Amino acid sequence: MPPLLEVRGLHTEFRTGAGLVRAVDGVSYTVEHGETVAIVGESGSGKSVGALSIMRLIPNPPGRITAGEVLFDGRDLRRLSEAQMREVRGRDIGMVFQEPMTSLNPVLTIGRQITETLEQHQGADRAQAERRALELLEMVGIADPARRLKQYPHQLSGGMRQRVMIAVALACNPKLIIADEPTTALDVTIQAQILELMKTLGGRFNVAQIIITHNLGVVARYASRVNVMYAGRIVEAGSADEIYHAPRHPYTMALLRSVPRLDQPRRARLDPVDGQPPDLTRLDGGCSFRPRCRFAVERCGREQPALERVGSGHLAACFRSAELLANQDVAA
Amino acid sequence: MSDAAATPLLEVRQLAMHFPISEGIVLNRKIGDVKAVDGVDFTIKRGETLGLVGESGCGKTTTGRCILRLERPTAGQILFDGRDVNRMDRQELTALRRRMQVIFQDPYSSLNPRMKVGDIIGEPIKVHGVERDARRRRDRVRDLLAVCGLDPKFTDRYPHEMSGGQRQRVGIARALALDPEFIVCDEAVSALDVSIQAQVINLLEDLRERFGLTYLFIAHDLSVVRHLCQRVAVMYLGRIVEMAGGDELFDNPMHPYTQALLSAVPVPDPRIEAARAFRPPRGEVPSPINPPSGCVFHPRCPMAVAGCRETRPELRELRPGHWVACSEVS
Question: How far apart are CA A205 and CA A32, in angstroms?
Fold first, then answer.
């Protein structure tokens, strides 16, 4: 069976006052049916822009998808008409954003936001849609759903609003949900509830998920495969176990080393990633992580390393990834 | 030991901060209170870092703001070096501001976008008349930048020309400008990227050592708090539910809320996560306008018994230095 989603050589640019920013600079990956893939990166790494590019939600100007293919269920989403694309959004691919307060419509009731999707995409009539909305709210664990349907987003807590977002995303039985920092704005106990909910429902309905996050703990808990992004590119991709236990890119290693962890003895000092995040308007032809990299050699300044196979299903974009394997205790 | 060393630098006694809620435009009347902080006690020794953790709305930031005298508390006392900050006259307050500083969460909104970095850091030095000579002030600003790991040439930059991590370093340099003894760090590293967060945490530790600083470290990220703090207080709905030495609290959490909070944090290791039994706490934090009776955690608590609904548990010292506000643990 071909993968559900295959992104090939995706490029997205923004024209800004400071210059041209290649926010997504040649990204390729796949998502299988029912699988959860995490995209990890820091601000400006291109993780959100990449997801919005799949949905063709990049505002133009200033942004533009300049190259690449997005094969979803056999069709290239980049070739669809705007009307066809609208059908895909919300029906085949659901989205959950970070801030449920700004992504829900403040002047529509919760019920209407769900029924609207159902009427639009599934041709349901009002009564059917309302029954289904009630069912959906119950499914995402909202108590007293009949009352909540008549309420407005501001009357709900942040956690409940995110549950509503998930209900909207699931309304039309999508094949894929893209969740962009779905729990970053939430408290840790609510974050845990929402992630468990997404995991349970994803499994129950065999929905594939792309979780975009900067939280390495969330990734470890929920993703089976991980793409690590830096400065618009995927620098390492592999199974969660490989990424965490046998990382092959210096950035992944540095990131994992830098976080304080509750499960390990307290360290005297943290080991941060040196330097500053890259200025995307001033990238040269070399590896963009080079200025912060402890393993950089002269070649890293001349050429950009390609994302290459370092193991079955494990890819890394580093000239020295073979040596890094031998030096795993450098990372530990 | 001298008296000065024996008295804690900061003592908070029965602090309460209730914000009134009113209704109606013409006949505006008070209809209730948001009990943001509702009876909080703790002390901080000189040179110590106390972590104040909890979820949004638990009152940790309001507690910090009361200590800084950015709010006038409804009740209770805040003793800084033995003196009640709410009874200070203008002159004493000015002196207090030099000894007590704050680092805010968001390095984007806490720096004036129209001021150059040099002026942002130099302003408190000027206002407090510490260094009247402009050239010497400039030198002091350059020193502060260097101490915070920034190139002294940043004095002529504007905040928007810097990254988030650099801006937070400017915020720290500004807090250090008056040689304070005590700094409230309110989510000081929460907005930073993972790779930058560790740099700033290390900087805060270095500064603590170098200048003998005392911190109140307010944060929601438990792993950061564990790393930085010698003692930790956990807040829930305006109250402290547990307080202990850092290692003791994380190795041996006793309050059911602390336990729930710790178990909700995913660890960056898929093998550990796959093996871990995981039950997120049920329900959500109730409204502080109408908090539950008795123990405020009882509606979500797996250990709750009938009595928890009636009596508010006081903090009890169950082990040396380990205080828990729960009637069901012993």
Answer: 14
Give bridge partners of residue B215 from the DSSP assignment: B49, B183
Q: How far is CA B145 from CA A126, B122, B177, B212, in A?
A: 63, 11, 10, 18
- Structure confidence at residue A330 as a pLDDT band (50, 70, 90): very low
Distance CA(B78)–CA(B76), nearest Å, equals: 7
Chain A residue with Cα closest to B246:
A266
Which distant-in-sequence residues (6+ apart) come within 8 Å of B42 by Cβ? Answer: B11, B12, B50, B233, B240, B243
Q: Using CB atoms and an 8 Å cut-off, which of residues 149-178 of chain A contact chain B?
A: 157, 159-160
Phi, psi of B63, deg, nearest 5: -60, -45
Q: What would the pLDDT profile of B252-281 be if each residue is shown by its tens digit?
A: 999 999 999 998 888 999 999 888 877 777
- Strand partners of residue A192: none
Burial code (b: 16+ CB inside 10 Å, e: under 16) for A183-200 equals bebbbbbbbbbbbbbbee
- Strand arrangement of the beta sheet that strand B214-219 belongs to: B100-103, B182-186, B214-219, B49-53, B231-236, B239-245, B322-324, B316-319
ipTM over 0.90: no
> Does A188 lie at the interface with B, CB-CB under 8 angstroms?
yes
Q: Which residues of chain B have pLDDT under 50?
A: 1-2
Q: Which of A217, A240, A255 is closest, CB to CB, to B195?
A: A255
Give the E-state strand segments of B188-325 in sequence order: 214-219, 231-236, 239-245, 316-319, 322-324
- Give the span between the Cα atoms of A246 and A238, in whole angstroms: 10
Looking at this protein, which amino acid is placed at residue B202?
A: N
Contact criterion met (CB below 8 Å) for A156 and A110:
yes
Please say whether the beta carbons of B19 and B82 come within 8 A.
Answer: no
Give per-residue pLDDT as tens, A216-249. Answer: 999 998 999 999 999 999 999 999 999 999 999 9
C-alpha to C-alpha distance for A22 and B233, rounded to whole angstroms: 45
Q: Which of B264, B275, B96, B291 is nearest to B180 (CA)?
A: B96
pTM equals 0.89
| pLDDT tens for each residue of A275-328 | 888 888 888 889 999 999 999 999 999 999 999 999 989 999 999 998 887 665
Q: What is the pLDDT of residue B107?
A: 77
pLDDT of residue B30: 83
- A281 contacts A18 by C-beta, under 8 angstroms: yes
Structure token digits, residue A70:
């997005």
Residue B181 and residue A32: Cα distance in Å, rounded? Answer: 56
Please state, as a whole number, how many other Cβ atoms lie within 10 Å of the Cβ of residue A309: 11
Whether A290 and A254 have beta carbons less than 8 Å apart is answered as: no
Give the mean model confidence (pLDDT) for residues A60-86.
Answer: 93
Which residue of A225, A270, A289 is the best one to mutate when testing the B interface, meaning the one whose CB has the most B CBs within 10 A? A270
β-bridge pairing B29-44 and A314-316: unpaired
- Residues in chain B within 8 Å Cβ distance of A199: none
| pLDDT attached to residue B3 | 54
Comparing CA positions, the residue from A17, A15, A19, A39 lying closest to residue A27 is A39
Q: Is A175 a residue whose pLDDT tops 70?
A: yes
